[in-house]
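Re: that backbone. C-alpha cells:
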C-alpha cells in the first residue's frame, strides 16, 4: 500500500503540516542512525513524504514505527525526530516533558505517571530543582496502532482526532457521536507526529499569570528540508532561550532566533513570503483547574513586522535572566530545600512584544499596564532597562522622543524642589517623591480626552520650572504630539516609569517597595 502525505493536500492545516515535518524528521533520524522499519519503505521530498507499506506486515510495521519514534526513558518522553544530532540533556528533557503535559498530553489517562520524586540537575552551572517530578510510565502515542489499524490489519477508514492528536479537538455535542472530529489515515498520521514538529515556549507572564503557561508555535511550512534545519536548531536550545513572557513574545523570539541562524539566509526561505505562524497558548482557567485550556490564539506574520527592529532591541535589553532561591533550612539547621535557580522574564518585554505583533507602537497602552498594581511594581524594577529602551528604540517621529526628554527633565527639576522642601521641613524626601509620582501617574491615568491631558501635562511642566528643551521651537514641535492624546499620555507615563535617577537620593525615592517584589518561580 502506498501512502502519500503532501504539504498542500486538502485538509492540511498548519498543525498537520508541522506533523508532516515531524514525520519527515523522524524518518531522517532513522536514516542517520541506519535504522529500518520492517515492512515500510519511504521517500522524503521537500513537499511530501511517500510511504510504502507491506500489506502483509502493515500492523507490525506501524507498531515498529511508533515504538522507535516514541518512548519513555527514566520518566521522560523521548522523540526520535528531535534527536538527529544528539540525545537531549536533562534541561531539554524537562522542557519537552513540561510542554507535552501542558498541550498534547494534558489529560491524565493519556500519560499515567509513577510515584512523584524530586529531581535535580544543572544548567550552565545553575542548579535546578523540581520538588514533585511525576515520572511518565507511558503515553498515548505509544499505543496509536490500535487507533489506526483495524482487526484485519488494515488502515481504518477514519481515525478519531482526540486531544492527544489535536489539542483542543473534542466532541461538539456529547449526545451525537457524529460530531467528533475524524481524519483520514494520512491526515491522522501527520497529526501523530505533530509533537515533533511544533515549537514550544514556556511562558512566565506577569499580566496573564497561570492563564498562560505554554506557547505552542505552529509555523506555516513550505519546505520540509529547510524547516528540519530550523526545528533541529530549536531542539538544541534550553530553558533560558525557550522561555517567553507571552504568546506574542514567543513568536517574535522564534523569529529572532531564526534570523540569527546561519543555516538559513532569509525568513522567507523558512516559512514562505508573507506566510504566518499560529501561536496557541495553554493555561489554567478558574472554571477548569485540572485541565490546560487553550486560552489564547493569534497569527503572527513571519515576514518583516512594523517595528520588528524595536523588538530586536527589546530582546537584547530585556534578556531572560537567572533568579536564585536560597536553600531553606529547618530550626535545627538541616537543609530541607536546596539552593536552586529559575528563569525569569521582563514585564516590559511582554507588552512590547504584544504591541509589535499587533502592528502598534512599542509603548502603546502602557497606561493600562501601570493601572495594574502588580505590573506597575514590576516595571519599577525594570526602570534601568526601560531607560535604555527609550534611548535605543526608534519612534514614529522624533518629537515623541523630545516629549519624553521634556517630561523627564521636568521630573528631575520637580525632584530637586522636593529635595529642598524635605530639607526645610525636616521630612523624608523619599516619601514626598513617591507621593508626588503617584499623584502625577494618577492624574495622567484619569485623563479621558485631549483637553484634560494637555492641561495635566502643561501643569506638570509649569510646576517644574524653566526647561531649556521647551525654549525656541521646542514647544511648537511638541504640539502635534497632543493631537493623539492617548499616545501623549502613554509617552508621559513612559517618561515617568523610565526616568533614570541622577543621584543616590533620587535612586532611593525611585526604588520598589521591597527587594523581592515581582519575582516568581
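Recovered sequence:
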Amino acid at each position: 500500500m502506498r501512502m502519500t502525505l503532501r504539504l498542500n493536500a486538502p485538509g492540511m492545516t498548519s498543525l498537520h503540516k508541522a506533523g508532516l515535518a515531524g514525520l519527515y524528521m523522524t524518518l531522517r533520524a532513522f536514516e542517520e542512525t541506519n535504522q529500518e522499519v520492517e515492512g515500510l519503505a519511504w521517500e522524503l521530498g521537500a513537499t511530501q513524504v511517500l510511504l510504502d507499506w507491506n500489506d502483509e506486515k502493515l500492523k507490525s510495521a506501524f507498531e515498529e514505527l511508533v515504538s522507535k519514534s516514541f518512548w519513555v526513558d527514566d520518566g521522560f518522553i523521548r522523540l526520535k525526530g528531535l534527536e538527529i544530532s544528539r540525545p537531549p540533556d536533562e534541561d531539554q528533557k524537562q522542557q519537552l516533558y513540561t510542554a507535552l503535559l501542558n498541550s498534547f498530553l494534558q489529560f491524565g489517562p493519556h500519560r499515567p505517571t509513577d510515584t512523584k520524586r524530586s529531581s535535580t540537575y544543572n544548567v550552565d552551572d545553575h542548579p535546578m530543582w523540581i520538588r514533585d517530578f511525576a515520572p511518565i510510565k507511558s503515553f498515548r502515542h505509544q499505543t496509536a496502532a490500535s487507533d489506526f489499524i483495524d482487526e484485519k490489519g488494515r488502515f481504518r477508514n477514519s481515525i478519531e482526532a482526540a486531544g492527544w492528536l489535536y489539542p483542543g479537538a473534542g466532541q461538539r455535542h456529547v449526545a451525537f457521536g457524529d460530531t467528533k472530529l475524524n481524519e483520514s489515515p494520512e491526515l491522522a498520521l501527520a497529526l501523530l507526529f505533530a509533537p515533533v514538529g511544533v515549537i514550544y515556549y514556556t511562558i512566565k507572564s506577569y499580566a496573564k499569570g497561570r492563564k498562560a503557561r505554554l506557547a505552542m508555535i505552529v509555523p506555516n511550512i513550505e519546505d520540509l528540508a529547510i524547516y528540519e534545519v530550523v526545528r533541529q536548531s530549536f531542539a538544541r536550545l534550553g530553558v533560558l532561550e525557550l522561555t517567553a513572557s507571552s504568546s506574542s513574545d514567543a513568536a517574535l523570539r522564534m523569529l529572532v532566533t531564526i534570523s540569527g541562524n546561519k543555516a538559513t539566509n532569509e525568513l522567507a526561505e523558512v516559512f514562505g513570503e508573507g506566510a504566518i505562524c499560529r501561536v496557541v497558548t495553554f493555561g489554567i482557567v478558574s472554571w477548569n483547574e485540572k485541565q490546560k485550556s487553550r486560552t489564547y490564539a493569534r497569527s503572527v506574520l513571519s515576514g518583516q513586522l512594523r517595528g520588528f527592529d524595536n523588538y530586536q532591541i527589546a530582546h537584547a535589553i530585556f534578556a531572560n535572566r537567572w533568579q536564585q532561591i536560597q536553600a531553606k533550612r529547618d530550626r535545627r539547621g538541616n537543609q530541607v530545600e536546596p539552593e536552586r535557580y529559575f528563569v525569569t522574564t521582563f514585564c516590559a518585554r511582554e507588552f512590547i512584544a504584544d504591541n509589535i505583533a499587533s502592528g502598534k507602537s512599542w509603548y502603546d497602552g502602557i497606561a493600562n499596564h501601570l493601572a495594574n498594581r502588580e505590573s506597575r511594581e514590576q516595571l519599577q524594577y525594570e526602570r534601568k532597562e526601560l531607560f535604555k529602551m527609550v534611548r535605543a528604540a526608534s519612534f514614529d517621529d522624533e518629537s515623541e522622543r523630545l516629549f519624553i526628554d521634556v517630561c523627564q527633565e521636568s521630573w528631575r527639576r520637580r525632584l530637586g524642589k522636593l529635595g529642598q522642601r524635605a530639607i526645610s521641613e525636616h521630612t523624608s524626601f523619599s516619601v514626598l517623591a513617591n507621593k508626588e509620582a503617584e499623584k502625577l501617574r494618577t492624574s495622567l491615568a484619569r485623563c479621558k480626552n485631549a483637553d484634560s491631558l494637555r492641561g495635566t501635562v502643561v501643569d506638570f511642566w509649569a510646576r517644574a520650572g524653566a526647561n531649556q528643551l521647551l525654549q525656541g521651537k521646542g514647544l511648537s514641535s511638541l504640539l502635534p504630539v497632543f493631537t493623539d492624546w492617548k499616545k501623549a499620555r502613554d509617552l508621559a507615563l513612559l517618561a515617568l516609569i523610565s526616568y533614570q535617577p541622577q543621584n543616590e537620593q533620587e535612586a532611593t525615592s525611585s526604588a520598589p517597595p521591597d527587594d523581592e517584589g515581582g519575582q516568581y518561580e
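Residues 94 and 255 are 23 Å apart (CA to CA). The two ends are 52 Å apart (CA to CA).
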